[in-house]
Amino acid sequence: MQRAVRAFSVHGNTVKNAVLHRIRVVNPAMRPVMFSRSVLTASMEEHGFESTTISDVLKAKGEGADGSWLWCTTDDTVYDAVKSMTQHNVGALVVVKPGEQKSIAGIITERDYLRKIIVHGRSSKSTKVGDIMTEENKLITVTPETKVLQAMQLMTDNRIRHIPVINEKEMIGMVSIGDVVRAVVSEHRAELDRLNAYIQGGY
Asked: Are strands 71-73 and 92-97 parallel, antiparallel or unpaired?
């Protein structure tokens, strides 16, 4: 999955430039009208090329599916946290301090469970989430305004699959690498559609 994500991140502009090159070469009828690359790029930016934000991703997921409820407390057992992840088919939970739902303490993931409980033969029923979570000072987050491509880069560079969305220190959702990849694919597809419309005189 990470290899595919890196391909999108690294080669996205290459695909765009290749298509633009094809426009210039294959459509001689367009040559008398000299469109500079900067003008074409500006036109595409007006239509939102690479402008999708994390806020857009959360809206697309819909209320109730945005992950804002994916949390547990530092005092919960690892067993209960993993059980919650399994029931909701997610791979991570944000950890908050007891009685302070808006105060983020860290995050617990399936990877934490495997590496810190299973591998060491510890009991998930007697170990607190706070003992194995990734703490807040090491927590990687994004905001609703973060661009999807920036979020994807953060996730691939840090080898993480889930990232909390924070707005003024309050968690408003969670996005996964799958959410980000789908958004990037959709964005590139929309861009190709716009290029196709440009070729056919839609602009």
From this structure: parallel
| Token pair for 188 | 């590139």
Whole-prediction pTM: 0.62
Cα dihedral angle (181, 187, 190, 192), rounded to 10 degrees?
A: -80
Query: In a 10 Å sphere around its CB, with 0-12 CB exposed, 13-18 middle and 19+ buried, how is residue 187 labelled?
Result: buried
Closest CA to 160 of 197, 111, 93: 111
Q: Is 64 left (phi over 0), alpha (psi -120 to 50) or beta?
A: left
pLDDT tens string 16-68: 454 344 334 334 333 333 333 333 333 334 334 468 899 999 888 876 665 66
State how far the Cα of 130 lies from the Cα of 87, in Å rounded to an integer: 21
